Amino acid sequence: MAIATVNPATGETLETFEPLGRDALELALGRAAEAAVLQRATGFEERADLLRRAAALLDAERDRIAVTVTTEMGKPLAQARAEAAKCAKALRWYADHGAALIADERPSDEDVADSGAAFAYVRYRPLGAVLAVMPWNFPLWQVVRFLAPALMAGNVALLKHASNVPRTALTLADLFHRAGAAPGVFQTLLIGSDQVERVIHDPRVAAVTLTGSEGAGRSVGAAAGDALKKSVLELGGSDPFLVLPSADLEAAVTTAVKARIQNNGQSCIAAKRFIVHEQVYPRFASAFARAMRALRVGDPMDADTDLGPLATRQGRDDLSALVADALRHGATAETGGDRAGVPERGWYYPPTVLTGVSPEMLIHTAETFGPVATLYRVNDLAEAVELANATPYGLSSNIWTEDPEEREYCLRELVAGGLFFNGMTASHPALPFGGVKNSGYGRELAGHGIREFCNVTTVWLGRP
Ligand code: NAP
In a 3-state reduction of DSSP, which class is residue 124? Predict the structure, then answer.
């Protein structure tokens, strides 16, 4: 895939970039190795100051940065602004809390004595240079939620961003440079995915984190395994949205629409499969289809737009093919289902609700990365949970119920990294984020995220 800025609202190529050659990559890796030595000697306050300065720049330049994001990947401008603001918040959160999250840990005096030591504790030391392979869908947030804890822990970062968001990738590196990051502390590498394996194998790189598709996860996980390096994989999802009879139906419908179309439907944690109890199905289905039909599709720079274009032509075509396959096998489009009525130019796809989906259709288990919802009717909670679990993914899940017993049942039986009751899945710096099954492994954010890229070191001091 060429490294280029292509406006998804028009299909126009605005700028292309040459990937780093061997020498430039070598230089960057060398700089990262040197920076890692200096960075591990810095204190928490110095690291926190850098994060706070970067947050201040992000706030001050939010509008400009949001335009870059929307131009490259098509999310509505207000959502790009909100993403930048969320990044500034996470930077400050780790600046405030990072030190405490990885402070030395002491076992009880009794256990220390039992180990034969005069003194023993655990210190969280940095690993060194961490490679981050990131996707385009939240091109600021995906980077910052890795970067803030990684830097706070004393690591340095190498970013290989998705090939369609090079301007955003360079903007982030420039922002940290202006915030005072020493050379090599955070570098953007303009490289293709074919160069990732080589970087993972480089001895100067200690670990890798990837947010992206299942296929990319398999490649990066295999390379990290082969190189015996720590990896974190945040992969795809096909999150269920369960609606049970005790739910506040009006709130459930409003949230269902938002959860499906946020980020033009291109979010790993978007609700994608709507599984509704038969008692409330008719009311939910008609209100949901009506609300999806009413969404305004158009220019993402326009403040009235609910749904912009998909980020890439390939993404639009893949989604189109999944819907066509479902319709061919007997599904019904309650709204949408073909491109009639959306702008000709650019990679738009209409909000779509499919019913009558069955297991032989690809869409039953595939991730729909765009504004397409599948709607299922079930007889009881057990059937709802069985259907919810019937995909290869296990990222998050949304459950609408006021019944504590139903909640307990879901806590026991739903296989996912997150359970969000009476709301939609969202990430927050204080809450760990990640999945199980083909949604990957490891966690980002909170204390779990900062400890992923630490060398958990046992320090033991013998008795005199
Ligand atoms: P993608 O094609 O997997 O790309 C993600 C990143 O991986 C890009 O930087 C890409 O580089 C790189 N890449 C792709 N194939 C690779 C390979 N074989 N080896 C090494 N690197 C490789 O994913 P996407 O289409 O951009 O993003 C959408 C996917 O990300 C969806 O599945 C979504 O659910 C998932 N996602 C997950 C989370 C989460 O937190 N769980 C969050 C957001 C998105 P190039 O661009 O150069 O190909």
Answer: strand
**Tell me, what's the pLDDT at 340?**
87
For ligand 1, whether the C-beta of 255 sits within 6 Å is no
* Pairing of β 117-126 and β 454-462: antiparallel
**CA torsion, points 196, 200, 204, 209, in degrees to nearest 10?**
90
* Nearby residues of 447 by Cβ (< 8 Å), 6 or more positions away: 101, 102, 432
Residue 278 vs residues 283, 285, 380, 398, 414: alpha-carbon distances, Å: 10, 10, 8, 18, 20
- Would you say 395 and 439 are in contact if contact means Cβ atoms under 8 Å apart? yes
Q: Are strands 3-7 and 12-17 parallel, antiparallel or unpaired?
A: antiparallel
Q: What is the DSSP string of 191-250?
A: --GGGHHHHHHSTTEEEEEEES-HHHHHHHHHHHHHTT-EEEEE----EEEEE-TTS-HH
Residues 353-365: tens digit of each pLDDT = 999 999 999 999 9
Domains of the chain: residue spans and CATH? 3-235+439-462 (3.40.605.10), 239-430 (3.40.309.10)
Regions of the chain with pLDDT less than 70: none
The Cα–Cα gap between 73 and 68 comes to 9
- Residue that is written with structure tokens 């292309």 in the block: 16
Question: β-pairing, 393-394 with 436-437?
Answer: antiparallel
Cα 217 to averaged position of ligand 1 atoms, centre (Å): 8
Rounded to the nearest 10 degrees, the angle between the axes of helix 381-388 and helix 404-413 is: 30
Query: Could you give the CA distance from residue 141 to residue 134 in angstroms, rounded to a whole number?
Result: 10
User: What is the spatial distance between Cα 120 and Cα 118, in angstroms, rounded to a whole number?
Assistant: 7
The residue whose CB lies within 8 Å of the most ligand 1 atoms, and thus the one to mutate among 3, 137, 161, is 137
pLDDT, residue 341, reads 85
Among residues 443, 329, 440, 325, the alpha carbon closest in space to that of 392 is found at 440
How many angstroms separate the CA atoms of 68 and 246, rounded?
44
Residue 273's H or E segment, with its range, is strand 271-277
Q: Name the token pair of 189.
A: 């590498």
Q: Choose which residue among 146, 213, 238, 268 to substitute to test ligand 1 binding: the one with the highest number of ligand atoms within 8 A of its C-beta.
A: 213
Question: Which amino acid, 278?
Answer: E
Residues 372 and 31: their CA atoms lie apart, in Å, by 44
Q: How many other C-beta atoms can be found within 10 angstroms of the C-beta atom of residue 182? A: 16
Helix (H, G, I), strand (E, B) or coil at 412: helix
Q: Could you give the angle at which helices 77-101 and 44-60 cross, rounded to 10 degrees? A: 170
Which token pair is 86? 């969320």
Amino acid 1: pLDDT: 80
| 235 CA → ligand 1 middle, Å | 8
